[in-house]
Amino acid sequence: MNDQANSVEQRFEAAAPAELSSWNRHDTTWMLGLFGTAIGAGTLFLPINAGLGGFWPLVILALLAFPMTFYAHRGLTRFVLSGREGADITDVVEQHFGIKAGALITLLYFFAIFPILLIYSVGLTNTVASFLEHQLHITPPPRALLSFVLILGLLAVVRCGEQVIVKAMSLMVYPFIVALLFLAVYLIPHWNGGILTTASQVPAPSALLHTLWLAIPVMVFSFNHSPIISAFAVDQKRRYGVHADERSSQILSRAHLLMVVMVLFFVFSCVLTLSPEQLAQAKAQNLSILSYLANHFSNPTIAFAAPLIAFVAISKSFLGHYIGASEGLKGLIVKSGKRPGAKALDRIVAAFMLVVCWIVATLNPSILGMIETIGGPVIAAILFLMPMYAIRKVPAMARYRGQMSNVFVTAVGLVAISALIYSLTA
Question: Which of 316, 94, 317 is nearest to 226 (CA)?
Fold first, then answer.
C-alpha cells in the first residue's frame, strides 16, 4: 500500500509544505476540480426528483444543501488529513481502525463509489443515444456497441493520470458553468409556475417528512465529490503541511458555495418551466433533465446545446469518480494479499471497470432507482458517518469533538441510510 500512496503523491507536482499564503492557481484548480466531480448525473436528475416532491420540500432541500455538503466533505477531508504523510483514505482507515476494520471500510468505500460509475455509464449512453436520434435524426448504433465505445474513450483519458484529470475537469468547468447559467436564464421566459400551485398547499407534517426523507439520498448524491477527496487531502497535506486543514476548508467552502448557487438556480429554473406531469415523464424515460429539455423545446440551439452539456457534465464526473473507485479497488486487491506491479494493477482495474460499466450501460437500469437505493445511502455511510465516528474514537481527531455540525452530519447520514432500508422493504 505504500507503493500506492507514493504513486498518488508522485502524480502531483513536487513541492515542500508551504506557509499558508494568499489564494493561488493551485487552490482554484482544486476548487473547480471538486465542482466538476460533483456536477454530473446526480445534478442533472435532481430537478426531476426534487420537483416531483412539490414546492415546500424543494425549498427545504435548498436550505439544507450547503451545510449538508460542506460539513460532510470537510469531515471526510479531515479524516484523511489525520493520517500519516502521503496516506490515502484506505491507508488512513487501516491506520486508525486496524487491518480487519480497514479492509471492511475499504470494501464499503469501493461500493460507495463504484455504483456511481455505473450510473454515469447508463446516463452517458442514454444522452448520446437520445442526441443521435432526436437532434441528428440518426439511428443510434446498437446499445452494446455505443456504450463500449463511450466507456473505452473515457478510460483512455484516465490513462493520462490523476493530475491531468483534475486539470482537465477544472478547465471543462468554465464553459460548463457558462452553459448551465445560460440554460437557466434562457428558461426564465418559459416559467409557467406549475410547481408554485403546490405552494399554497402546505403538506401535512408526516407527508412532508416522508418526501424529504426519500429525497435526501438523491441530494447527497447530487452534490457528492467524495471520490476525489482522498487525492485532494493528500495533495493539500503535502503542499501546506500543518496548514492543510485550514486551506482545505477554504477551498471546500468556495467550491460548495459555487455548487449550491449554480445548481439550485438551474433546478428552480427547470421545475418552474416544466409541469409535474412532464417531470414524471422525464423520469419514466430515464433521461437527464437536459436531454428532456432538448426534446421538449423546438429551439435548435437548446436542442443541440443541452445534450452536449449533459455529455460534458457526465463525462467529467465519471473521470473524477474513477479516481476514487480505482483507489478503492486497488486497496482491496492489495489488502487481499496480492501485490501485482503498479502497471499490472492499473490494467486489472481498468479491465474490470470497462467490463462491468459496459454490461450495466447495455442493460439500462433506472438511474434514479440506482441513486435512491444504492448511490446516496452507501455514500452516506462513508461520507457522513465514518468521519463522525472517527472524531469520537480517534485521538488524532479529538480536537473536532463537541461541534454541533457533527450532530447535523450524523443525522443526515442516518436519514439517508434509513431511506435505503425503507426503499428495499417497501
Answer: 317
Q: What are phi and psi of 184, to 5 degrees?
A: -60, -40
CA 300 from centre of chain: 30
Cα Rg of the chain, angstroms: 21
In terms of pTM, does the model score above 0.85?
no
Closest CA to 50 of 257, 264, 235: 264
Q: How far apart are CA 392 and CA 396, in angstroms?
A: 10
Q: What is the pLDDT of residues 314-331, one digit of tens each?
A: 887 788 778 888 888 888
**Listed residue (213, 252, 335, 330) closest to 76, CA to CA:** 252
What is the rounded CA–CA span in Å between residue 87 and residue 1?
9
Neighbours of 31 (CB within 10 A): 22
For residues 131 and 57, give the distance between their C-alpha atoms in angstroms, rounded to a whole number: 32
Topology of domain 2-10+25-361, CATH: Amino acid/polyamine transporter I (1.20.1740)
Q: Which long-range contacts (CB under 8 A, 24 or more apart) does 206-210 make?
A: 208/56, 208/57, 208/60
Question: What number of other Cβ atoms are within 10 A of residue 25's Cβ?
Answer: 8
Which three cell numbers, joined as nine digits, stand for 175? 464553459
pLDDT in tens, 353-377: 999 999 999 988 876 666 656 655 6
DSSP string, 12-79: S---------S--HHHHHHHHHHHHHHSSHHHHHHHHHHHHT-HHHHHHHHHHHHHHHHHHHHHHHHH
